[in-house]
Amino acid sequence: MTEKSLFIVKPDAVARNLVGEVISRFERKGFKILKLKMFTFTQEQAENFYGVHKDKPFFGELTSFITSGPVVAAIIEGNNAIATTRIMIGATKSFEAAPGSIRGDFGLGFSENIIHASDSQESFDHESRVAFE
Ligand code: CMP
């Protein structure tokens, strides 16, 4: 089923010049890139984007990291985009993510975990509104 998803190349990956590497994996997989945007999250935008985590103990760390430098947001389209993208990015804790996944190949962090991707249609709707507003 053709579907859209969103991913964000996080500040750690942008700083490490991994933008092209990350985007090219989605292109090579067969996804079409519909939108691309480089920007720096404001505090308000970050709190809105990650609103689902607002009561978590790591919320401050999360928003402070995501606002710490430029990110690249993409909306992609292809078969089963939301679930397939989650498989491609790997486990949240980069140090446990399987080799072959994006986090597994490029990171060791938890907050600093290279990439975010929508995990449901609802999160895609919300996150794409915030990132591309
Ligand atoms: P992401 O996929 O962007 O979704 C929420 C983020 O919160 C997650 O990646 C991690 O970077 C971060 N996160 C989740 N749990 C923790 C935690 N216990 N400590 C620090 N960061 C966390």
TrEMBL record:
- Biological process GO annotation list? CTP biosynthetic process; GTP biosynthetic process; UTP biosynthetic process
- Locate the residues binding ATP: K10, F58, R86, T92, R103, N113
Keywords annotated in UniProt:
ATP-binding, Cytoplasm, Kinase, Magnesium, Metal-binding, Nucleotide metabolism, Nucleotide-binding, Phosphoprotein, Transferase
Domain of life where this protein originates: Archaea
Q: Which residues form the Nucleoside diphosphate kinase-like domain?
A: 2-133
Question: Which class of enzymes does this protein belong to?
Answer: transferase
Name any GO cellular component annotation.
cytoplasm
| Positions annotated as active site in the UniProt record | H116 (pros-phosphohistidine intermediate)
Which NCBIfam families does the record match to this protein?
A: PRK00668.1
The name this protein goes by in its record: Nucleoside diphosphate kinase
